[in-house]
Amino acid sequence: MIVNTNDMETGSVMLHLNLGRPNQPSFVLVIRNDHCYRLDVNQPHREFPGTHIQWQGDSMDDERTRDARQEFPPIPKDGVVHGEEYAATFRAFAKYLNIDTSAMQWVDPPERSAL
């Protein structure tokens, strides 16, 4: 999904999906080829045991991270992940970033069960 940020820079919000681990997607906001925000679902990161959000602070060396397990729709840790579960989390991530998805046309990724 291509977006315009408040300062009119063009960016994109996307789903990164490893089909070998469909229960661990990442949702990313990219502006000027930089990952500005990333939501990693069911993936541990340093002090956070699962779903967390990362973003750049004031400099490239200033990466910030916080627990986000209670803020976004869950993706099941086992079994098949359905497209509507990815879509709900994608829309929640976009809403968190103040991005309107009302005109978005979602296409489900292939369904695979977690290994």
Could you explain the architecture of this structure?
The longest helix is centred in the C-terminal third of the chain and has 14 residues, at 83-96. This protein has one domain. It has a six-stranded antiparallel sheet with strand order 1-2-3-4-5-6, with helices on one face. The chain starts with a strand and ends in a 19-residue tail after the last helix. 12% of the residues lie in helices and 29% in strands. The chain contains one helix and six strands. The chain has one helix at residues 83-96; strands at 2-4, 10-16, 26-31, 34-40, 52-56, 63-67. The protein has 115 residues and is an alpha+beta fold. Residues 48-78 are annotated as: Disordered.
Topology:
Elements: E1 2-4, E2 10-16, E3 26-31, E4 34-40, E5 52-56, E6 63-67, H1 83-96
Strand order of the largest sheet: 1-2-3-4-5-6
Intertermini distance: 29 Å
How many runs of DSSP E, i.e. beta strands? 6
Number of domains: 1
In percent, how helical is the residue content? 10-25%
Structural classification: alpha+beta
Q: Give the assembly state of these chains.
A: single chain
Rg over alpha carbons: 14 Å
Q: Can you count the helices?
A: 1
Largest sheet: 6 strands, antiparallel
Q: What overall geometry do the principal axes of the alpha carbons give?
A: globular
Query: Uncertain regions: pLDDT < 50 for 5+ in a row?
Result: 1-8
Summarize the structure.
The chain is 12% helix and 29% strand. By secondary structure, the protein is α+β, with helices and mostly antiparallel strands. It has one domain.
